[in-house]
């Protein structure tokens, strides 16, 4: 058995819901014949290091190199634990070092204009999106800033997944799987709290519809995800904004919600991050805000201390 046959089996049996990896990263591993043709009995750390160096020499970003190395390591670990294949996982990060700089946090936030009489980036973005020929585009963008869902999650939502009375939304039911699909397979659909801003947005949206939507109707009708992505990029440029991806809206929403939910476990339940380490990558607080919070906490504690001394 070769590395290629192992990767192909994993692709066919375990990656039905991971389209991006099947289109991009799996073919990239298979194309590297120096690695994929290696027999498992001859597989070594040198093979993995060679794969890493060839990717880097080809100009791939460090994050892409790490993604493919980690995917290879996951495939081998699955073969060891589930298929009883006797092989050492030389692709593990404990064996082969990953390129530096791949885990750099992205810190793009929507900026306010220093001149308060001029619109900030949020206002400019919304104005540009409102000009879209697809009316639901602006609802989707506003929703993402309020609820912090991933784009794919938002587009799979149906009105039947929303419970305005209980203030919850359901992901991973009949409408599809989310990034945390393995948890859903064990525990059922993921239920997340509906933020007050997102709830108000949906109530506002309902008032604009000609009739009450069916439970199976999509929350946002923006066409295909790829078509929306193209439109979004064009509208961001029309707004004069630079380096603002749609996923940055999730960063923005997470950072805004963090001000209201100081407990990171509560915040994680809303945003759907798998763990606190993942959450930390998306939480982008403004340093000045943290400083003010500390100053306010010191002030309150000082007042309490002074009050206690007066009572004594």
Automatic annotation (TrEMBL):
Protein's name in the database: Phage DNA recombinase
Keyword annotations: DNA integration, DNA recombination, DNA-binding
Lineage: Bacteria, Pseudomonadati, Pseudomonadota, Alphaproteobacteria, Acetobacterales
Domain Tyr recombinase per the UniProt entry, residue ranges: 111-298
Region (Disordered): 173-193
Keyword RNA-binding: no
Record-linked InterPro entries: DNA_brk_join_enz, Integrase-like_cat_sf, Integrase_catalytic, Integrase_recombinase_N, Tyrosine_recombinase_XerCD
Family under the similarity heading: Belongs to the 'phage' integrase family.
Family matches, as PROSITE patterns: TYR_RECOMBINASE
Organism annotation: Acetobacter indonesiensis
Pfam families with a match to the protein in the record: Phage_integrase
């Amino acid at each position: 058995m070769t590395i290629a046959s192992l990767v192909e089996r994993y692709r066919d049996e375990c990656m039905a819901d991971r389209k991006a990896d099947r289109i991009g990263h799996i073919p990239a591993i298979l194309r590297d014949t120096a690695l994929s043709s290696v027999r498992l009995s001859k597989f070594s750390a040198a093979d993995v290091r060679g794969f890493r160096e060839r990717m880097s020499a080809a100009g791939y970003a460090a994050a892409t190199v790490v993604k493919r190395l980690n995917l290879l390591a996951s495939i081998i670990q699955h073969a060891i634990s589930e298929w009883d294949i006797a092989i050492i996982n030389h692709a593990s990060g404990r064996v082969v070092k990953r390129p530096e700089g791949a885990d750099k946090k992205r810190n793009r936030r929507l900026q306010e204009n220093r001149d308060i009489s001029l619109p900030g980036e949020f206002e400019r973005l919304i104005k540009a999106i409102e000009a879209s020929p697809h009316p639901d585009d602006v609802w989707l963008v506003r929703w993402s800033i309020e609820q912090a869902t991933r784009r794919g999650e938002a587009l799979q939502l149906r009105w039947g997944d929303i419970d305005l009375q209980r203030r919850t939304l359901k992901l991973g039911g009949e409408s599809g799987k989310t990034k945390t699909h393995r948890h859903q397979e064990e525990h059922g659909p993921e239920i997340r709290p509906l933020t007050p801003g997102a709830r108000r947005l949906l109530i506002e949206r309902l008032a604009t519809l000609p009739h009450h939507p069916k439970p199976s109707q999509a929350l946002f009708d923006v066409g295909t995800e790829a078509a929306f992505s193209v439109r979004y990029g064009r509208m961001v440029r029309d707004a004069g904004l630079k380096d603002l991806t749609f996923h940055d809206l999730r960063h923005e929403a997470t950072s805004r919600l963090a001000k209201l939910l100081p407990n990171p476990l509560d915040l994680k339940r809303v945003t759907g991050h798998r763990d606190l380490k993942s959450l930390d990558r998306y939480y982008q607080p403004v340093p000045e805000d943290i400083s003010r919070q500390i100053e306010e906490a010191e002030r309150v504690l000082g007042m309490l201390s002074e009050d206690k001394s007066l009572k004594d």
